[in-house]
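Hey, can you fold this one?
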Amino acid sequence: MLDTLNYDKLAAQVNTKFRLTEMTEPIELELIEATEPQTTPQQEFFSLFFLGPKDFLLPQSIYELAHDQLGTGALFLVPIERTEKGVRYEAAFNRLINTAD
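Sure. Predicted structure:
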């Protein structure tokens, strides 16, 4: 599931395609960037940036995505910019670090 993967596994998929599984027309988003994680003793923060078609805008929402290597899972995507190349979306991660060890 995409929502349980860690930064390293997600960042390794930069420049690969993710498919929106619930759309009637096939829509692909390309993972174009993964920011370096910032950490505190309790939390880890990072963002993934996707590029989608320029002629189609997904509203801010949770979407089911499929990836050939990672499988399927839900991500909350927010449109942040429309460019000549397409619409950029951000998925922000804010995870608690397991300190029970």
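Helices lie at 7-11. Let me know if you want another pass with a different chain boundary.
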